[in-house]
Each structure stands twice: as structure tokens, then as C-alpha cells.
Amino acid sequence: MRNVKNLNEDTIVAVSTPVGEGGIGIVRMSGRAAVKIADRIFISRDKKKPSKFKSHTIHYGYVIRSEKRKAKNAKHGKEIIDEVLLTVMKAPKTYTKEDVVEINCHGGIVAVRKVFEILVRNSARPASPGEFTRRAFLNGRIDLAQAESVLDIIKSKTDAGLRASLNQLEGDLSGEIRIVREKIIKICADIEGSIDFPEEDIDADTAGSWLRDVKGCKSNLEKLLNTYHDGAILKEGIVAVICGRPNVGKSSLLNLLLKKHRAIVTHIPGTTRDPIEETASIRGIPIRLVDTAGIRKERNIVEKEGIKRSHLYLSRADLIICVLDGSEKLKKEDMEILNKVNNRSTVIVINKCDLRPKARMEEIRKIMKNGDILKVSCIDKIGIDKLEERIYNKVWSGKVNSSNEVMVNNIRHKGAIESAVEALSKAEEAITHNISPEFVASDIKRCADSLGEITGEIYTDDILNAIFSRFCIGK
């Protein structure tokens, strides 16, 4: 494997737009030779070379290649590959802090591929997944937490999740981590200073000051850890399983929550055989909705497998939406399902409230004593807004959440903060029991190292490879 220095000396190229037909296809280069390569393959309308362009300007022209024989579509003795707009952005004010050239081609597989191939032939190297963002980190434009937020922005499922990721890209989390880390480093320096003068005893005031500072830093980190649950919800969402016996309106409800026709709806019981999964945005929360097969005594091997999968999804659900038919009396299957989901995070939806009610509320409440019960009509679209409100309240447990707050939403960051808190707890215990300062300093250093892994002050190639391998090529 080439080392980081050699990788950064290469000029990389990638297609930065999805494969397929479209109005524009973007091919991006970054590196020392980016502008020189552009000089060789681009002819502008005013015949200037890209190296003479002002930074951050766009120019109309042609991507060309030299040909021994004059082609029909030749210009100035060169074969035209595509009519393009070329942008030159010179270091250091670029995404990677290197020279960057972006070529806006006509959208389409052939045109984009041919432009990409011309750049590779002229010594640009195909970029690895996430390599542009990796260079932005290695060149000091963003820290590691900010780099990870770029991927979170790309994968955001809701507006709230996008805002939380943008806050991290702006450095909100990194700022909080750096404040604590700087305090930790200062405490460590004070402790190590005392080690240099072993003949001087550590007085009670000094030890008390260390203890207060360690406790303060630990408290700040614990507050950040407490945001992980909410941050993870905004980023990943929750799994909500729609269950019930056949023909109670589960698929109709799924379609209404998704605001599109995803599941087939018929009057025939058992239409849904396999679980159907789709993600909906419900008041800013990504909800992975799962429409399951109707739960009843199976009649054949296919239905048996579908019901088996329904039970499996139920066991893993974060939230259960149990649908009952309000126009019929409760059946044995209904009672069995209610007993199964009792004491789980559940919303009971009594569907078909537009018809004459026959389901008895007292029977339902007898089983679901703390159940959240709501009447809806999927046909007339009654009560759907209230259901969305109940789901929202269930997710946040009644508390108000703001995606503008500093949050931890990354499992790697969570693990690093937990390690830092553990190290501070040991340091706190060592100070309290008057253990030698060398041991205290060791724990404090371990805390600083864990926090440094979040922002990238401390990293290994393995960490970088694990992070950036999840990126798409071209970002």
C-alpha cells in the first residue's frame, strides 16, 4: 500500500455524478497536475489555457484529444470529445486545498466516460472512495468529525437529520470536543509538572483542583454522551412495524404514512405475504416502516413463512403500530396480537372508524392498560395527522428535541467519548485515593488520546480506511 505522502502527490480524478442519463455529468480532478492536465485536453473559446484562467472561473470550450488523422469532428487539428464548461479552482481555497478542476459534460454514460478516460490517459489516477474528502482532512481543511459529517449529509433521510449533520460539518461537535481536550491537556501538564519535582508533596489544594477539573470535564463529556440516543434517531431513524390480523388495513395505512401507493391493497385477506419496508419522514424523524403479513393461523407453507417473518420483525421493532378493525368485534387473533405487543412501545390503531363501531374499547384497554389508542379511517384519511403526532411523541418520549443542538450521532464518536469518560473515572479515583501522579497522568493522557481520535489529532491508516471506504467515489 502506498503511504499518505505518495497518495497526496498523485492527481486524482473521478466522476462525481450518478451514472445514467442527465442534464450534466461532472468529472472532477484534484492535485498538483490538475491544471496542467486541463491545459492538454481543453480548448477554450478564447483559446486561453486553463493555467491562465483566474481561479474560481468557468469557461466554455471543448475536451479534445490529439489524433494523427483528422477526424470529422476535429477542432484545431484535435478530435472533440465533448462540448463542456470547465472550472478552475486554485489552491488553497478549494475543497481539498489542492488545485481542483471540474468539467461539466453533457449528462450520459458515454460522454462522461470518454472525458474520464482522457484524463486518466493524461496521468490522472482514478480516485478511491472518499479520497477527495480524505485529502480535505489530511490537508487540514476539515477535521475527521467534519469529514464524517459529509457522508451523513449525503445520506440524510430528513430535514432534521440534514440540519444535525450540517451543524457537525460547521464544527459544532468538534468545538465542544476541543474545549474539553484542551482542559484535559492542561490538567495533564500540571500533573506531569508535579512529577518532575518528586521531593515536593502534593498539597490538598492542588489535588482538590485536579479533582474538580477532572469532574468538570467528565460531566461535559457525559452530557454529550446523553445526546447520542436523539442524535442516532435523527440520523438512522427507528423501525416501526405495522402488525395485525389479515384485512384490517395495514397496507392502506402504510401507503398513507408513506404518502404514496407502495403496498398492494385488496379486499382479499392475506394479500401481503412478504414484509414490505420503506422509509418515511414523519415530522423530521426517519421512520423505517415495515408492513407485515397478517398474523393468523397459517393455511399453507407460504403463509407460514410470511407469518414467521412478521413475528421476527415484531421482536426487533422499536415501535409497533397494531391495527385493529373497528367495524368488527375483537377476534381471537386480535387478542393474541394485543397480548404479544403488551408492554412494548405500541400505538393501537382502530381502523374503519367511518363504519359502525363494533370493537369494544374496554376489551382493548383491559389488555393494553397503558396502551396509546387512536381511531382512524384509511378510506377517508381521518386521524392520520394525529397518528403521526403520536408516533412523534412515542419516539421522543414527550420531550422537545432540536436538531440545532450539539449532538453525538456517530457510533465511533460515542465509543471514543465512552473511553474518555472511563479514563477520567479512573483518574478521579486515583486522585481521591492519593495514588501516585504517574498513574493519574497516564489516565488523563488516555482520555486526551480518545478525544483526539474523534477530531483526527490522533489517527491511524486503519481508522481512515474504515471511515472513507464508506464514501462514494467522487466525494
Proportion of helical residues: 40-55%
Mean pLDDT: 85
* Poorly predicted segments: 1-5, 268-273
Annotation, overall tally of beta strands = 14
Structural class: alpha/beta
Tell me the fraction of residues in β-strands, as a range.
15-25%
Describe the main β-sheet briefly: 8 strands, mixed
CA(first)-CA(last) distance = 21 Å
Please work out how many helical segments DSSP would assign.
17
Estimated radius of gyration:
30 Å
Topology:
Blueprint: H1 4-9, E1 12-15, E2 24-30, H2 34-41, E3 42-44, E4 57-66, E5 74-75, E6 78-89, E7 100-106, H3 109-121, E8 125-126, H4 131-138, H5 144-154, H6 159-169, H7 172-195, H8 204-225, H9 228-236, E9 238-243, H10 250-258, E10 276-282, E11 285-291, H11 301-316, E12 319-325, H12 332-341, E13 346-351, H13 361-367, E14 372-375, H14 384-396, H15 411-432, H16 437-455, H17 461-468
Parallel strand pairs: 1-8, 9-11, 9-12, 12-13, 13-14
Antiparallel strand pairs: 1-2, 2-7, 3-4, 4-6, 5-6, 6-7, 10-11
Helix pairs in contact: 5-6, 6-9, 7-8, 7-16, 8-15, 15-16
